[in-house]
Amino acid sequence: MRPLLHLLDRELAAATALSTSLAAETLALATDADALAAIVDGKFEQARQVEYLAGERMAFAATLGCAGDSAAWEEFIARADNPALSSRWQQLQGVLVQCRETNLHNGVLLDHCQRQVRTALAILQGQPLGLGLYGADGNQAPASSSRTLAKA
């Protein structure tokens, strides 16, 4: 089990690094767009590392008679009756869940930022925004094809 524990430790370290990058990405989306590209590049590399190590772990587990799906892996962990193995697996699962949630959150933030940029460009280019505004009578007001930003 020692080699498997070592693989889980490496995978946990990689997942923790990915989690740190995702947190940095969240901050950059809100405050530092210039740093975003480098952070995203690092995040992708760390995600590839996590996937690679998961593949190594599953290949090693297969040599011990464990099939490649998650149900078989969970059963393998339970049958191993090894507290250290179980603990590392739970830690890894927790970090990966956090990574997934943070990545989804960052996707929502990124989508919001992209909509703001598209709206700003549309205003600058004099294009209709299609915001679906309603007039005093409750009917949808027609979208104006231009917007006055200032008068001299």
Please specify the SSE layout and strand pairing.
Elements: H1 2-31, H2 33-63, H3 70-80, H4 83-124
Helix pairs in contact: 1-2, 1-4
Architecture overview:
The protein is built from four helices and no strands. It has 152 residues and is an all-alpha fold. The chain has a single domain, classed as FlgN-like (Methane Monooxygenase Hydroxylase, Chain G, domain 1, Up-down Bundle), CATH 1.20.58. Helix 1 runs parallel beside helix 4 (83-124). The longest helix is centred in the C-terminal third of the chain and has 42 residues, at 83-124. The chain is elongated and about 75 Å long. The mean pLDDT is 85.
Give the low-confidence spans.
Answer: none
The CATH superfamily is known as: FlgN-like
CATH topology, anyone? Methane Monooxygenase Hydroxylase, Chain G, domain 1
| Average pLDDT taken over every residue | 85
> Can you tell me the number of structural domains?
1
Largest sheet: none
The geometry reads as elongated
Helix/strand order: HHHH
Chain oligomer state? single chain
- N- to C-terminal separation? 78 Å
Helix content range of the residues, please? Answer: over 70%
Structural class: mainly alpha
Under the CATH scheme, which architecture would be assigned? Answer: Up-down Bundle
Number of strands: 0
* Rg on CA atoms, Å: 24 Å
Total helix count? 4
Residue fraction in strands: under 5%
Overall CATH class: Mainly Alpha
